[in-house]
Amino acid sequence: MNGPFEFTLRLGDDALIAAQRLAEWTTRAPEMEEDIALANIALDQLGAARLLLTYAGELEGAGRDEDALAYLRDDREFRNCLLVELPNDDFAVTMAKLLLLSAYQLPLYTALAECADERLAAIGSKTRKESAYHLDHAALWVKRLGDGTEESHRRMQAAVEQVWPYAAELFAPDPGAPVDPAALRAEFDATVTAVLAEATLTRPESGWAPAGGRDGVHTEHLSYLLAEMQVLHRAHPGAKW
Amino acid sequence: MYGNDFGAPEEASGGGLLGEVEAAEAALREAAARQRRRVPASDDDLAGFFAEIVEADQKIEPRDWMPEAYRKTLIRQIAQHAHSEIIGMQPEGNWISRAPSLKRKAILLAKVQDEAGHGLYLYAAAETLGISRDELVDLLLNGRQKYSSIFNYPTLTWADVGAIGWLVDGAAIVNQVPLCRCSYGPYARAMIRICKEESFHQRQGYEILHTLAHGTPAQKAMAQDALDRWWYPSLAMFGPPDGESTHSTQSMAWKIKRFSNDELRQRFVDMCVQQAEILGLTIPDPDLRWNDERQAYDFTQPDYDELMRVIKGDGPCNRQRMAHRRQAHADGAWVREAAAAYAAKRAVEKKEKVAA
Ligand SMILES: [Fe+2]
Ligand SMILES: [Fe+2]
Known about the structure:
The structure holds 2 protein chains of 2 kinds. Chain A has a single domain (about 5-200, about 215-235), classed as Ferritin, core subunit, four-helix bundle (Ferritin, Up-down Bundle). Chain A is mostly helical. Chain A has 9 helices and no strands. In chain A, α1 (about 5-25) runs antiparallel to α2, α5 (about 90-110) crosses α7 (about 150-165) and α6 runs antiparallel to α7. Chain A is about 65% helix and about 0% strand. Chain A has helices at about 5-25, 30-60, 65-70, 80-85, 90-110, 120-145, 150-165, 185-200, 220-235. The two termini of chain A are about 35 Å apart. Chain A is globular, with a radius of gyration of 17 Å. The mean pLDDT of chain A is about 95. The longest helix of chain A has 29 residues, at about 30-60. By secondary structure, chain B is an all-alpha fold. Chain B is about 65% helix and about 0% strand. Chain B is built from 14 helices and 2 strands, in the order αααααααααααββααα. Chain B has a two-stranded antiparallel ribbon. In chain B, α3 (about 70-85) runs antiparallel to α5 (about 100-125), α7 (about 160-175) runs antiparallel to α8 (about 185-215) and α7 (about 160-175) packs parallel to α9 (about 215-235). The relative contact order of chain B is 0.12. At the A-B interface, α1, α2, α3, α6 and α7 of A face α4, α5, α13 and α14 of B. The complex binds fe (ii) ion (2 copies).
């Protein structure tokens, strides 16, 4: 019975890799308030990752805790979507990524809060409130940048086009899972379409739908991210921190 | 009493200082409750009014008359403090991506975020003196205002994150606890809030080192190496020795500063010695010993020539820290411009709606 473990691991890995990328903004954000806001969102994602990975470890029953799962797996064993591992690039790309991620996580966690598994339901009811804030924050910036200056509009449109193809992977059907991602697509589309319209941006049409993250076939970026994240932990096998 | 009231490890990270912050907070409330003479008797009485408030340990507030030099001194000091919080995010931020457990990663990320918050409160306190945050940020970026020299040292290992928390946040608290009683109200209030958070940081740093010092031989060596590198730069954080300090006397009279550099440095050393013992680490000073007569530890002074070199810009990371801040500021310019343009468009829309 690998189903709930695999599902929980996917969600946990999404949150962990998103946190790692968002935390890269610390000391680099466009303004001080934004440095704080991005750290907040990174902390929320990290908090969700810890709950999910801890529970995944329990479901697996092989004695792996959150750190064993985070630090001692290789990139082929990670189950996050490709979207979260993409480099931050400029602030517009980061906000485009966050918009797609939070527009997916919000209905996901909301549905999770109602699911039969009590632990997942508890995690969902905590994290959905956080996702609502992440979505607000990303939507606000996408609007500001889309409807700001000529330069910001150009960058924001390019950013949306760059990350849009990666949304498809988020909604690959998984009928046996506690929440079937395919069921979330309509809400996601409605949310994102409204934000883009208000931001005076054009919703891209793309036939290209890169995927593979859920099977551990990632972009080239993930192994660099993990190399950095895991280096110290792996250099001292068995040490406590 | 510092240094002698630490028993168990949990008690070993500056509980006495937190008590002082709370006492300062209570004093602030009492001072606010006491009737303050509301306005000067006449325009000739301005200086007398100011002196009276300072003398009575009441607070000077933004709208009060104050000597120009007092205003300038405060702006310089608060701005440097704010800049230090912002630049100080870099050395620790350097380890967020590599933190060795998810719990430590979360604690460190939250800590660095707190420092950004400290920067913001302090810029806001400086703004009450009639200067804008943008102007202050420019003064930092063009090198006309400084930040604490400690942040020009590199964080080479994970243990440095522990050493910064324990020693650098620790020294910051020793320096800042008296500022909770500073005569300028907005600064005193900001310092109370900040000192409470700094005391958590110090505890967390101490915990990191405690774990390392009780871990594998490699971890213990990492902790000792960090202490070896951070000890003297931390002592130098209190500034030049009293005889050479340029701003001290006037600041003491104005109750901006309440203890001399050397007094605070001594207080810090006395506090650290027993904490180092509990950690099982050795402070890198062969001449460190208790002096019964002085009821304080004798210790080796930091290298003040090195301090001056670092302040002048020739520390290991001065160029890197400034380049990083300038880069972030420049990279963010188009985003700030977009936010301003968006806000302006919304303001116009609102006006049009009201007019229609
Ligand atoms: Fe701070
Ligand atoms: Fe701090």
